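Hi team, as promised in this morning's meeting, here are the two structures we talked about. I've kept the exact order from the run log so nobody has to guess. The first one is mostly here for context; it's the second one we should focus on when we meet again. Sequence first, then the predicted structure tokens.
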Amino acid sequence: MEALRTGLLQGPGGLPASTAASLAALETAAAEAAGRGARLLVTGEMFLTGYALGDAVAEAAEPAGGAAAQHIAGIAARHAIAIVHGYPERDGAHVYNAARLTGPDGTALADYRKTHLFGDYERSVFTPGDRPLVQATLDGVRIGLLICYDVEFPEAVRAHALAGTELLAVPTALMRPYEFVAETLLPARAFENGLHIAYANRCGPEGEYDFAGGSCLAGPDGAVRARAGAGPELLVADADMELLRATREQNPYLTDRRPELYGSLAARRTAP
């Protein structure tokens, strides 16, 4: 496949959304993105319920294959578009900050739980995931999943690059004043690992947070193919697989690695 046309849904802003409102917004976005030729639509972190739920996140959480996931499977199948949605997942007594990739026929392709929890709020309400590498194939393209803070760890993205991920889908809730993550770090991550990153952020004030927007599709050459502003927006752009192959041939980072020198990187930092 020469390119995987990818949509990024930035929003919703304002107060935490209800699940019903989020599903309605997703239906509209999926129809528009598919109409513009997209085969994949990526939403923001905790898209389904809103991010700033506090202790109510446990009540809002659903199983990975729950009612909302089944509804999203119907949306994907109706519009023949794969969807990555962020949501709080309940599994027994545990609640995870999770994302699911649903295929364009409505089949669940991959489930991921955020492994690097950000700040006191997330660490107080979520259990960290323990699977660092989750992948699936869509239209011949290897898709990987991370969530927000995960992508800021070079080890997490490098693991995907080494495992053959070609497009990394990252539902995000990036807050101000950390706009530099979307503006500077994401293109660098894409370049140093030779892959596309679809980074779909939330936007606007929500509870005590102010989400920065700036969703983007960054390419393996470090160039940003599409960039959102600060408000709600649906981006559609191509993740060019020919460019990815050419860039990986020209960029020696992966082949010039010396992993025998990096053992200490896996060790926890100790106090001086």
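And here is the second protein, the one for discussion:
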Amino acid sequence: MRDVLQCLGGVALCVFGLYRWSTVRGADQAAAQRYVHRSVFCLGIALVVLAPATARTVEHTVALPGLPMLTSDLLRMVAVSCLGLLAARSVPRQAVTTAAILLFLVVLFFAADLQHASGELYVDGARRPVLAAYDTVLTLFPAWHLSALVRVTLRRARRAAPGVRRIGLQLFCGGVAVGVVWTAWGLDDIRLALLTGHQSDGDDAVSTALGLVCATLVIAGGSTSAWTPLRHWWWSYRTYRALAPLWSALHRAFPETALLTHRRGLRRCTPRALRFALYRRVIEIHDGLLLLRPRMGPGGPPGQPSAQAWAAAVWAALDEPGPGGPAPAGDRARRALPPEGDGSGGEVGTDAEASQLAALSRAFAGIAGGGGRG
């Protein structure tokens, strides 16, 4: 079960990291996000490579004991190096340092001459210091980068104004702190290398859990630019659903107002399709209200009516037996909108109209659910 979860978690991290890496555009902030997603991508591959099933397949294919461990360790060092760039390090210097560390690890790995027996990796007694040096590099290099990054991120989080940016920095800082603990978990490997000469060729349950938690928090904190579009998508979805009662009633009365749509299935849930569907539903409701205006009288409810007053007027007009017709010249359905929104805040243009119509639709649904005005 842990094998399956580790593979699924690693694949999910790979796909998400690669997608965000390829889609983020822009200057400094986007560059920082690309570093984060490159790191997540490398961590995902490392988890997949080190999963027991994958490791066994690799070792049976290539007769080199410990190759999955070496590959996973190198990927982790690259991931840590990408995160280290967020601490305002020079990219060329960081690249040279990382390349030297990776080469040093490869040299130590082959110098240790690992052997495989009974499901464990081991070295001869004379080579224990070499294996211990390998594990020490794996511990100190990430600890150096992640500790510095924790300090930098924590300082930025304290200076940031309350809001999405601060929350993102706090989540990112928490993920890096978990990464420090994950790195410290490798201290036991140094002890085992020196005392027994044995080396684990896979992550235990705690190490896997720490890796997944670290990557998840880093993703959440490093993807703050996606929060606002996601929040707007959720608002659009809720608003679209809220418009259904009013739209259905007007559509039954005036089916000619419906516009054609060609999107089906999951494609209707994409941000662009949902945005267009919401816009179309607003237009259709406007058209229905225009046709309904002759039944509502010249001015509708007197004064500055609330959403409940307008909903009652629409309900009564829909019950009116007379046919609807075009509104007087120059009259706009915008006058039939109640003044208050739905509390989503910050909408302009179509969003503001959708909010107002959603309030009207909720009030209308309340009247319909109660059997009318009584």
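Starting points for discussion:
The mean pLDDT is 77.
The two ends are 59 Å apart (CA to CA).
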